[in-house]
Design a protein that fits this description.
It is a single chain. By secondary structure, the protein is of the alpha/beta class. It has two domains: 208 residues, 3-Layer(aba) Sandwich (Rossmann fold), CATH 3.40.50; 43 residues. Helix content is 49%, strand content 10%. The protein has a five-stranded parallel beta sheet, with helices on both faces. Helix 2 packs across helix 9, helix 3 packs across helix 9 and helix 4 runs parallel beside helix 9. The longest helix has 20 residues. The chain starts with 18 loop residues before the first helix and ends with a helix. The relative contact order is 0.15. GO terms for molecular function: carbohydrate derivative binding; carbon-oxygen lyase activity; ether hydrolase activity. Keywords: Carbohydrate metabolism, Lyase. One of its GO terms (biological process) is peptidoglycan turnover.
Length: 271
């Protein structure tokens, strides 16, 4: 395989650049990320369709990752129960070192070839689920071993990698290869690779939730009512969709049923 993520930066003598030069060049490099993702959209679409199908049939999604990619997947997953009102075990993260050590960045744990499969077993992973490996290099032992074991147990696998023809992609049923090129600082895959991963996580979760019916029009109608700002937003959503003009009446209806979707369904039933 070609380790593009380890190739030398296209820029030299960064320490001699001004702030203006650094930000201009960083911005220029970041503009290549959406173009790299665009090339991988057919594979990404296949993956999302598979995720939706698995969840509709009672399965779950598991991200397996280490380092920046693994941590970014945690940030995406923790938002979903509030934003879309889904169970917290629908999207899961198996993180090298454990999510409880998220801020400690225990990078040495990415070489553990036994931990990921053990952690998946603790979550009772099965053939109903789909497991997605995250690795910029495409070689992370923690991730590779997990996909290898999943394959042995007929569990669907996918991956998000940034090098072509990697060992992890070889173990994945649906490999998503997003080739973002050499990093601005040589080998620092928290940069373009990380940006690509964050965008892809957003695309996966958002598209999946829309296809699962958790969005109406362009609105978060299943958002959890966890603070005053969200309650106010939800009341206004309910007013817009019902035609109710009295804010307090709409708020009472919302709080009685617990979500815009449930309140709207009840309102339409009683019309």
């Amino acid at each position: 395989m070609t380790r593009i993520t380890e190739q030398a930066s296209n820029y030299r003598h960064l320490e001699k650049m001004s702030v203006e030069e650094l930000t201009k060049n960083l911005n220029k490099e970041d503009q290549s990320v959406p173009l790299a993702i665009e090339k991988a959209l057919p594979q990404l679409n296949t993956l999302i369709n598979s995720i939706v199908s698995k969840i509709e049939n009672g399965g779950r999604l598991f991200y397996v990752g280490a380092g920046s990619g693994g941590r970014l997947s945690v940030l995406d997953v923790i938002e979903l129960p509030t934003t879309f009102g889904v169970s917290s075990d629908l999207f899961n993260v198996i993180l090298a070192g454990g999510k409880e050590h998220l801020i400690e960045a225990p990078e040495e744990k990415e070489d553990d070839v036994n931990a990921a499969w053990m952690m998946l077993q603790e979550k009772n992973v099965s053939a109903k689920d789909i497991v997605i490996g995250i690795s910029a290099s495409g070689t992370t032992p923690f991730v590779l071993s997990a996909l290898t074991e999943c394959k042995k147990h007929q569990i669907s696998t996918a991956c998000i990698v940034s090098n072509p023809d990697s060992p992890i992609a070889e173990q994945a049923d649906i490999p998503v290869e997003v080739i973002t090129g050499p990093e601005f600082i040589t080998g620092s895959t928290r940069m373009k690779c990380g940006t690509a991963q964050k965008i892809i996580f957003d695309m996966i979760s958002t598209t999946t939730m829309i296809k699962l019916g958790r969005v109406l029009d362009n609105q978060m109608v299943n958002v959890k009512l966890i603070n005053d700002k969200i309650v106010d937003r939800a009341v206004k959503m309910l007013m817009k969709n019902t035609g109710l003009e009295d804010y307090n009446q709409a708020k009472e209806l919302l709080l009685e049923h617990g979500s815009v979707k449930k309140a709207l369904d009840m309102f339409n039933m009683e019309k």
